[in-house]
Amino acid sequence: MKEDSFSVFAEYYDLFYLERKDYEKEAKIVKGIIKKLERKKSRTLLDAGCGTGEHLKYLSLDFHCTGLDINKRMIEMAKSKVLGAKFKVANMIDFKLRSRFDAIVCLFSSIGYVQRFSNLVKTLENFHGHLDDTGLVIVEPWIFRKDFKKGHISLGTYEDEELKFVRMAYSRILKSMWLIYMHYLIGKRGEIKHSSEIHKMLALDYEDYVKAFELSGFKDTTYLTENLWDGCRGLFIARK
Ligand SMILES: C[S@@+](CC[C@H](N)C(=O)[O-])C[C@H]1O[C@@H](n2cnc3c(N)ncnc32)[C@H](O)[C@@H]1O
Questions:
Q1: pTM, rounded to two decimals
Q2: What domains can be seen in the chain, in order of their start residue?
Q3: Which residue is closest in CA terms to ligand 1's atom 27?
Q4: Each residue of 5-27: pLDDT tens digit?
């Protein structure tokens, strides 16, 4: 079982999620929040953990965008579809960019992959350091620990003429980490292959996130229960 979270799934990510998530609608909600709360007109935006660049496709219509992700393949895919944006392969915990941004977003639980509370604080400090003086951060957290469903097995499929793809996953909480055991069945060219990955995520509750925002210097942390997608994550918003 591979420990590099997206080494298998990156290739199938868009096929799997584009029929489940409405990135255009999500980007519109994110833009609406920025416009409502900004103290001066926001021009620049960083998407940390941007994945294949689907939010950036729409956000780049209104902002000068930069996308950052630890996975090289994800960044290659994002680059090929969002031509006007800048991209960087880097770890959100300790990346260093020369630019400062009016807004930093970290969506669809990318933040969860920092695994530990101490890394969450480092990541938020790093976001803080890369924000302009009146900048805003918007973070869609991983599911709160209190909502962990013991024994739950998720199942998702995708199929077209050439590919049949199945993803099944179950989770365990081990001390302070939420481990997701992802199993994939990939059927193509007359063969079926099995692969698996472990996604190591934060196992934190609402209060832990609020504390991490405070410790990293953010002010006015608020939590919107308004959900971008599946009704169980919400959004943290904070100001420099
Ligand atoms: C669930 S995907 C979300 C991607 C994208 N934001 C979306 O909405 O589709 C999580 C992403 O976080 C990236 N990631 C995980 N750990 C990271 C880290 N430490 N620094 C930067 N990116 C990271 C993964 O490579 C992956 O692309």
A1: 0.97
A2: 9-144+204-239 (3.40.50.150), 146-202 (2.20.130.10)
A3: 51
A4: 888 999 999 999 999 999 999 99
